Amino acid sequence: MRPRTRELPRARRLPTAAGVTRTLCLVSVLAAVGLLPWLSGKDPALTVLRARSAEQEPTREALDAIRRDLGLDAGPLSLLGSWADDLLHGDLGTSWVSGTDVLPSVVAGLQVSLALMGAAFGVAVLLACALVAPVLVRARASAGAWAAMLAAVPEFLLATVALLVCGVWLGWLPTSGWQGPEYLVLPALALGIPAGGLLGRLVADALPAVLDERWVELWRGAGVSRTRVSAAALRRVLPPLVPQFGMVAVGLTGGAVAVETVFAVPGIGRTALGAAKSQDLPLLQGAVLALLLLGLLTGAAAAFTRRRLLGPALRDASLNLPPARPVRTHPAIPLTLFTALAVAIGGGLLRDPYAVHTADRLAASSWSHPLGTDALGRDVLARLGHGAAPTVGTAAVVCLLSLLLALALGFLPGVAAGAADIANALPPVIVGILVAAAAGPGTGGAALAVALISWPPLAAHAAALVQEVRASAFLTAQRAIGASPLWILTRHVLPSVAAPVARHALLRLPGIALALASLGFLGLGAQPPAPEWGLLLDESRAYVERAPWAALAPAVALALLAGLAVSGAAYAQGRKAVKETPVEA
Amino acid sequence: MSAPLLDARNLVVRYGTVTAVDHVSFSLAPGETLALNGPSGCGKSSTALTVLQLRRPDAGEVHFEGRELTTLSERELRPLRPRMQPVFQDPYGSLSPRHRIRDAVAEPLKVQGRWTATDGPARVAELLDRVGLDPSYGNRRPHELSGGECQRAGIARALASDPRLLVLDEPVSALDPSIRAGVLNLLADLQDELGLGYLFICHDRAVVRHFADRVVEMRDGRVSRP
Hints:
heterodimer, A: mainly alpha, globular, disordered C terminus, B: alpha/beta, 6-stranded mixed β-sheet, 4-stranded antiparallel β-sheet, 10 strands
């Protein structure tokens, strides 16, 4: 009774702090997009000159003329001002490379992408229904493990495997282009399956706890049919999950970049990536803006749906879901996955990843090359092993930085919540494209991009814990003995917050590694000849018919990482959570 | 009558539009037990928090050992805080679940700069012994203790600050009836021995009659019978 009333004024103040941060984050993202020509370290004038005419010498006069033409000499603020002004008049500018208007290209790309995302969303919903149905029918036992596995597979990996199996080996479906409905199937599957896994997992994880609630027993006792109980349970589960569904839809915009690239679909994602690589900044600005708008609209739609579903009950805290039960896996599974990865990496580290054997190009596996060789005759096992450091090592650094930032900012709950909202609306790929456009592609840029969006969820978690600890009676007792705020912070608040947030960060490590790999795969991260896993997968795609093992090795390594992310999750949630879960035969 | 240890004058506490404590006044002499008695929700606990200055009153004054506390800043208040210690209702919630009992009892000594490597551990053992806990309990954590043992540890921690006043916020309400008497007897012995003043907050009239020197009845935020 007492703590609740005391929290009232704080709760009333919070949304404004979060709102301010949200607006600030959004404005700074928009400003970053608008300032791209100025942020970009490379001279855009050179890009434009080269695109306009191959013969013209890059003389000082010619470059100055172009700078004046583009308004680059006026400084960042006026550049931003004129960009925003044009934007408000519906003018997205002219492409530096093709010289055509940006708006039609963006609209054309958006149409293709929306069709693809719509189809993918259909796949996702169907898959989610298939995953949830057994939970409802048996009223127990979660399909969560399978769903979680599917959800953890990154789109670029699934796209590559689908291309390899269905397109190339079986020859069932076309693998590149956009000429008819049959071209939609593979991209929609690659994009929809991870999303469906995530949707299914969210619902399947939440359902068993809801079906254990007392009203279910009561309804069953009163002879209510199983169908009606199931419908009511779904109705109970869905509203709190709707914001997460919005995040799934946002994830589709990020996944679309990779999938469109793999299947050569002329969508908005591929347009953005191409523009980033060719330094065509106006086109990039337009495409990124369209992707951001798509993400924000889905988020708003999700919030609106939730309000409609809940109505006046929205403020009732009792409508929160009971805590989901963690996915149960035998401890041997993460251990096996970890051992397999460690053995492959250890074996690879003993070999030279850069040694070129011209005689053994695209060789199959043999004693001298256990996983075969790539197009330059380099040992695949060696590249896999040495690739672990740039992939997993960078992810560990990103993780640690995010953790430190989260702990520092967790004491400002409004800031953490607001930043988390915006970060959730930004897929890593889009941030990666922006950073790569500004700083050029590289491991540092990719790490920065992933770090930018991986700290806010951790900070939000830390903020929630800080509030919980601050409300507890033993902190009041601390003040009563005359302890200073610093003593309370360092001896009591920080120790109770740091451990769970660190576990959460560790849990996100494989996901961060996969995000880095997807940037590497798209050419936005590590550059050749570095043996980064995403890059390995990308390089081997061209020879996939002749040397499938070169593509399969990094694909399997990434899949193992994804599996580790899921099966390790239950253990990362703390001993208590595992102990309370009855072991099922 | 000697100068009062605690003198609360016209205390007012508001939560939003609700007035939880409405012009409550009382005073307490050294070594005396004053009970604040009343049904739940009548403002007893808010009064206790205000006396301890863990929540600042919206109006009124708190005089403790002759000093007015409500006008002091948090920093000025800090050296005075050890003189008045709370004992809360929930024995488990008032001790950090992460710390051993020994560390919880030693913490006031450390915070107040009275800890030395030679005397500190001996003082902790003495305090645990004084509240009837075997010093070996120092190694345990709160969840490894029973409610009554935990409340005794809480009292030991409060005594570590060498207080003159204990604010006992329903100290036995959460305990099993069979062990209430033990804790109450301990409190009575400590009062005789150390001359402590007790502000005893309770809703059980039988306990109040047995334990308190004087009773202030509260109802709907007001003193109903002085």
